[in-house]
């Protein structure tokens, strides 16, 4: 007989009950010897929760059983197999189908109705105990936090944490960098990106040993109260349940507050700046591949709105065209807007949209009938599964639950599409003639320039997928025209169509 021994212990069980793999291994191997096993395979999972099925040791055991290499599986208790009743029943059935029998040291397993009943009860108790262990561990962490201890791993730039003693201490080199970040930001005319750029220029290493600082990392340091000695545990809990644990401070409270005030001022300015760029998110530089964002740059001694593909190292390691490509925002926005107006009054464009909106009624009916058949089939399938569950022919395990959720999601999508088809079929007799569409388009065009900024922005993003910007303004143009550049507008409704604007 070929036997397999499966042993498992989780981190919580080691801490709370003192369970060990060696004790399980010794006892299970002794039982295998008593049963006359000629070969014993050992499969183990250490520090792995019994609430999950995806465990290295268990996966290896299942593969061995599937290959027919195991006749008997020996475990200390059903809890070792899984802490979830559904998983226990699933694995038991899987092993039995291959002819491998289960042997427990602390539980008598019988393949009788009574034996299965006791096995199910045992599994339910194990699942209850797992939840109680989780609750005790969570409660223990909260209690430790209330007493000023660190209940979880503490990995913060500027600090070192010793899990053995629970002590948090300063990392002198990193703490010095944190102080410099706050000093540069609060005492100089420099923003978050400027701080990140300086760190990159000085080749200051990050916690992971990299030499690239992203501005978002700098921002997280500036807003984190841990650097004034207040580490907050339970941030996802309600505000009144968040626990503040004292740690060594790196910066004083006055400096930290100055940083918060400056960040608040920057946030107030940012929405005004970002909302002034009509084509933000649509422009792509065809020469370097970067998106083109808005920026206030000096243009012949004056600060003006521009679009540029140039990126600071604090934002991206792909810095864009060199020398920097900049295009006057007012001119570019006006040019694109005029082209959009042309698209609206183009008879061919109107015809294309009309043809797309008025697809064949026969095709719509065929799709509607097909959807109805699929929905009927899904309903029959759900009734079959429900009946099997009620009769005890099928267990509501994780796999079955996921299958039912997938069926439900698919049904909802099909019902939504069916409703759309019903509405389109109802409106088929109300098709507007092409000349009427042209008249409506012209009516829209007459008032299009009076649209608000947000309305224009919405219209552009509904119509345009992207705008490719190729080339750069010719020398001496002073930003007054787009000579030397080619703009390609790609529409969402018709990706094959490209409106070319050449200057």
Question: Using only CA atoms, what is the Rg?
Answer: 34 Å
Helix proportion range: 40-55%
**CATH topology name of the largest domain:** Rossmann fold
Largest sheet: 4 strands, parallel
Q: Helix count? A: 16
Described by the principal axes of the CA atoms, the overall outline is flat
Distance between the termini: 85 Å
> So what's the CATH class of the largest domain?
Alpha Beta
What would you call the structural class?
alpha/beta
Regions with little confidence, pLDDT below 50 for 5+ residues: 496-503
Strand content: 15-25%
Number of domains: 4
CATH superfamily of the largest domain: Resolvase, N-terminal catalytic domain
Question: Any guess at the CATH architecture of the largest domain?
Answer: 3-Layer(aba) Sandwich
Q: Spatial order of the strands in the main sheet?
A: 2-1-3-4
- The total count of strands amounts to 15
